[in-house]
Amino acid sequence: MPKIDFKALFDTLPSPYMVLDRELRYVEVNRAYAETLARARGELIGRHLFEAFPDDGESGRLLRASFERVIETGQSDTMALIAYAIERPANQGGGMEMRYWSAVHTPLFGDDGRVAFIVQNTVDVTELQTLKQMASGDAPAPGETSLLQRVQEVQQANLSLLQETSELRDIFRQAPGFMAVLTGSDLTFTLANDAYQQLIGHREVMGRPIDQALPEVRGQGFVNLLENVMASREPFIGRSASVVLQRTPEGPPEERFVDFIYQPILGPDGEAAGVFVEGSDVTDRVRAEQQQKLLLDELNHRVKNTLATVQSIAAQTLRTSPDPATFNQAFESRLLALSSTHDLLTASSWRGADLRDILLAEFRPHGTERYRLEGPDLGLSPARALALGLLFHELATNAAKYGALSSPEGCVKVTWGLEDAGGEDRLVITWTEEKGPKVGPPTRKGFGSRLIERSLKGELGGEATLDYRQDGLHCRVVLPLD
Predict the structure, then answer these.
(1) CB of 189 within 8 A of CB of 175?
(2) What CATH topology corresponds to 6-126?
(3) How far is CA 312 from CA 232, 333, 458, in A?
(4) Among candidates 48, 68, 64, 66, which has minimal Cα distance to 56?
(5) How far is CA 209 from CA 188, 224, 238, 273, in A?
(6) Which of 87, 114, 389, 473 is the most buried (most CB within 10 A)?
(7) pTM higher than 0.85
(8) 318-354: per-residue pLDDT in tens?
């Protein structure tokens, strides 16, 4: 079977055809087009349409608007009637001649799915005899009057329709929720508004099937949902659905959350011709809800831990208190120490507290001349801050009752720093009491000893040693850091 020479076919078509690129430059014209406009093909190829046939008036504006609609929507556009003056060749007297045209503009798509070219098929509807009679003042023939009147009525109806369509297109494009229309069995993008383009990273999707335009959504089940809507002709509603999209060409995949509906578009035969997609990006709301749940879970955890700590303080204080008055005083002071550390953690939204601030909370009531603090700024996790806050309170309370802070000349020196232990940092704190009364080891295990055993050793994996020296208590605390 012989092959069809499409180039020859295009050139021999009896109706005028021409092809423009996206910049409205001539790419090709057929013989009928060149003859109708009395221009050689070589005069047109590569030239801008409005350079070859300039018109700054209403006709030029209408023609340009038609081309722009084709590029924007990817759909054909028809101009039932347009008056456009054409320059007559010199051998025909030169000057401008008003012609009336009916034109259809059809898009041709490139490999990227975008409109690459526009094909124009024009029909010269100018009745030469009518124009001669109009130029000479004679009335046009009845048949010609009827023809022109019908064409003008169609043009006016089309202009009204185009205005309504343009207004609807603007509403669709500017709608705050994302919207798109997919048609055909391969779910090709026909329309997509600005919000949808923003959601998908402004990718070129028009005229492309969804598997090519958004390949990452196939494995996430969305294409299957669309296909089910087409087959069942029933809508599907999704809420707070997670979708991972490639929103920038070189960026990582990004998770978004969307509320959406897939609504089938039914044709006259009752079958689904496509799917209307509408929804909204609710990522901020979903993440806020997740953060709120996380905070509530964390608050619940902290309250339980705090109650357990208070219960332990009460039990240990009661065990070591000889009478209710002593219990009340010791229990209240320990709760105040716990509250002080809580205040420091609350100020940082429970991200942690600085070691120096925890120490200052215990030493400030005794005056700046009674203590020396030496060490770098060091943030502690909430668990470590609470444990050390209670430990420093016990050490400071004992120093005020029996140690260096109980005598006018006494002083407490606290130093701290980090040391490497097999590739892991450990915090080393030394508490040294100077110029205080001679102290000795306690005769029974008190709250401080139990705190060291339960919190530092048991929960945090640290250790502490107490050395009752002649000039005062010496305490060394070693604590692994997270």
Answers:
(1) no
(2) Beta-Lactamase (3.30.450)
(3) 63, 14, 14
(4) 64
(5) 4, 14, 22, 14
(6) 389
(7) no
(8) 666 777 877 777 777 777 766 777 777 777 677 788 9
